[in-house]
Task: inverse folding
């Protein structure tokens, strides 16, 4: 996918809000075709409408990313609509419950791993199978700075995101000679509905975030989206297996 080329086919999971929606609109502004996946139909249809208004073509496919058959159907629907799959942004994820390692419940562990890690693997599985048929493609996975450094109170989340980073690296070296690039973005604390929900419960959260991120602010969903677009472009044609921190300098400390 080149900077000048338009009308690339892009699949985005977790595209109903936040970073996923921002990415859909960023690709749409380039004139791309976007398949938006998520569980919340009304928000997903809204993202698709906004993407069309921004200059792209878009559809919403209601999908539970933790179910293999639904991921397989999502990829098939995308290819049926536009004939190929050029790029995929595996963005869907949850934070899970906050608890120290010994207090983390089995239910929280299994659910967080299922959505944040197993679902990314399932998505990559069917995306890669399609991209191998084409001889090319780009995948970007949404990991987290919690996949690069430890995070108190989030054992399941940290483990899942660390797994995404390693899964990204593994796939990147497996398919580097098959025309498929695989990278990850690792956002720090970003202004999203998910972060806002946590801040409403804990008023001390935002001041703490501003303190630990050297730039002294939260990132924006658009800043992450632009990094995803770049990684999918030919401007990043020699970049694969990379976990890109987008965190205002947090992990550099």
Result:
């Amino acid at each position: 996918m080149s900077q000048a080329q338009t009308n690339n086919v892009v699949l985005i999971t977790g595209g109903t809000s936040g970073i996923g929606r921002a990415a859909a609109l960023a690709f749409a502004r380039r004139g791309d075709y976007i398949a938006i996946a998520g569980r919340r139909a009304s928000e997903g249809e809204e993202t698709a409408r906004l993407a069309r208004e921004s200059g792209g073509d878009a559809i919403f496919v209601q999908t539970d990313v933790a179910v293999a058959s639904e991921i397989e159907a999502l990829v098939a629907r995308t290819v049926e609509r536009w004939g190929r799959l050029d790029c995929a942004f595996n963005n869907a994820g949850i934070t899970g419950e906050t608890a120290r390692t010994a207090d983390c419940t089995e239910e929280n562990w299994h659910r967080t791993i299922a959505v944040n890690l197993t679902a990314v693997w399932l998505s990559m599985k069917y995306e890669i199978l399609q991209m191998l048929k084409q001889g090319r493609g780009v995948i970007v996975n949404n990991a987290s700075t919690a996949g690069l450094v430890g995070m108190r109170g989030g054992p399941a989340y940290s483990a899942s995101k660390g797994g995404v980073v390693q899964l990204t690296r593994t796939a990147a070296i497996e398919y580097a000679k098959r025309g498929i690039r695989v990278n990850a973005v690792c956002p720090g604390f970003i202004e999203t509905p998910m972060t806002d929900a946590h801040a409403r419960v804990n008023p001390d959260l935002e001041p703490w975030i501003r303190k630990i991120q050297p730039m002294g602010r939260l990132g924006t969903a658009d800043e992450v989206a632009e990094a995803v677009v770049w990684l999918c472009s030919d401007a990043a044609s020699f970049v694969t297996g990379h976990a890109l921190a987008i965190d205002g300098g947090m992990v550099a400390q």
